[in-house]
Design brief:
This protein is mainly alpha-helical. The chain contains 20 helices and no strands. The two termini are 26 Å apart.
Length: 407
Amino acid sequence: MAKLTADQRNAFLASFLGWTMDAFDYFLIILVYSEIAAEFGTSLAKMAFVTTVTLAMRPAGALLFGLWADRSGRRVPLMVCVCFYSLVGFACAFAPNFTVLLILRLFYGIGMGGEWGLGAALAMEKIPPERRGFFSGLLQEGYSTGYLLATLAFLLVHQVLGLSWRWLFGFSALPALVSLIIRAHVTESDVWVDTRKKMAATKTRARDIFLQKGILGRFMYLVLLMSLFNWMSHGTQDLYPTFLKEGLKMNASTASTIVLIYNAGAIIGGMTFGTLSEKLGRRKTIALAVLLGLPVVPLFAYSTTFGMLTLGSFLMQVLVQGAWGVVPAHLTELSPDAIRGFYPGVTYQLGNCIAAFNLPIQQYLAQTHGYPFALAATIVPVLVLLAITSLLGAERKGVKFGADAAA
């Protein structure tokens, strides 16, 4: 099995850290949005739309930065993207009211939307094909690592130091350091360089490739697939801390302990199922993970004791993020070389846009029917649909990137 070169390791590290810090800033809001709602005198249902506007704007970021990356390379757009979301995240600490915070999170969504597609393209184009599964799982779990770090930051700032939620966003300046790693230690993607040469020689435009037979249809399929993926992910994560604190009246420290444990499960799941996808295939691995999640739903949603809640959420995140661990490899392999900066990121984030209403819906159902029902009713259908949809789609496991600019 091929060993990674220093450049490959640095590219992967930069992509992983960019996605980690992206998720870190996103989940800061999730952990404290009940506290923010109290300070600004707004309802939890209204506060939930802060995450909605973030998710809804992510396709704009994926489109903007993705088109730039396909024209100019991966490195510079990725550096700008990371610095942009760092600045906006930091500015949230000074939001004077709910409206300003909502606008800032809207702009944050643009930066968050751009990072994943660029980072995934850069990392997967450099990783050897036979090792994509493992590194795909590891890359995607930068998301769970960010959630875990956000929880630790919350415990430090809120529980240990007794400071307000605003201090948490001081950490949002840290992701900008990722840009220094990219600038100093990462070269441009050879796949992108070779593809641009082929396109120039054949006078092929990105628009021509997108409109080729099968490419647009695959794009629409991937939007549907990622809508289900994002509904599953946000449906099992975004409401859960509030369920623990508001629904079950746990103190913040106990709830955060459960969050830490289930994020450790998410990291384990991503690497395990990502690696498994090299043997079982991308589609079958996704279907296996989500179907195994079905019998876990009652334990996840209806438990009331610390032990059972911890076990249920841990197992659920092993399986949910296990399925997600396949996504970076699967989406980049299904993306044409010439539009890999744009194609996977936009399909991912359009799916996020559709799933953006998950939290408001769950919050409404929690208020009318209780938190357990809200969780179960929004999770079970999507697990079944995701298993079916993943098996019906295409797969290009192990494809050699750069073999054909129009592939």
